[in-house]
Amino acid sequence: MAEKHGAFRKQALGAFVRSVRDRVTPQQAGIAGGQRRRTPGLRREEVAQLCDISVTWYTWIEQGRDVSVSPAVWARLATVLQMTRAERAYLFDLADVSDPDHDSAVVSAPMASLQACVDSINAPAYILDRHWDVLAFNAALDQVFAGWMSAQAQPNLLRFIFLDAQAPGIVVDWETRANRVVAEFRADIGAYLDDGETSGLIDELLAGSPVFSHWWARQVVVEREGGLREFNHPQLGIRQFEQITFRLATQPDCKLVMLLHQRLCQDITTLR
């Protein structure tokens, strides 16, 4: 079954590449006009030359054959064929490899738009990037963290959990959450471990937190999931929320996280 699924994916990949090639004109690809063509699109030979691969190899890609293609070649192919962001993401999904130019494929939303988004939510809400920097948060979220967010020049949730002395008192069942957070963070930054900012943050957490160091060495990887989250506010006491997380369409390495009150979750369930 897996072999059949793999063959279907390669056939779909070949058909997709072929259809995109057919729509790119020689002029768009920077090729001077020459002899008469049957179709307005690029020839296989031209694409192969522009991608610096053999014509045979490229032909096998379009035919859906079982060939091994590096991420760098897929990236060149996406550039040569002038794929849109959505098309490029689809190409790498079908190829089942990571885009080496992942940062260039992301369109960033203006900071004001991110802030307006969380301000419009009637519940504690924030937006995290892949380094767990809090890009935007609302007043309700700042209250949950007892004013910690607004006191930071650039709040980072990992630094709060592992390096701030307040965290074990505010996050209920802190040790269990810390374990889970490390595994979720590892899942988020797998494609960015060679990035200087990522490695710098990891080194800082390893040096400053024995708990982070302990769980990081375990090599556990899990997806971010929802569920009950409890916080012990210094004045308001224990507060319970249901955590809901969405990835941003224009910034897939960022997440919108909402902490919904239990009553609101019940209302949403009733509406369903």
Automatic annotation (TrEMBL):
SUPFAM superfamilies xref list: lambda repressor-like DNA-binding domains
Gene Ontology MF annotations: DNA binding
Residues covered by the HTH cro/C1-type domain: 16-88
Record-linked CDD domains: HTH_XRE
Domain of life: Bacteria
InterPro entries referenced in this protein's UniProt entry, alphabetically: Cro/C1-type_HTH, Lambda_DNA-bd_dom_sf, MLTR_LBD
SMART domains: HTH_XRE (SM00530)
Pfam families: HTH_31, MLTR_LBD
PANTHER family, A to Z: BLL4672 PROTEIN, BLL4672 PROTEIN-RELATED
Name of this chain's protein: Putative HTH-type transcriptional regulator
UniProt lineage: Bacteria, Pseudomonadati, Pseudomonadota, Betaproteobacteria, Burkholderiales
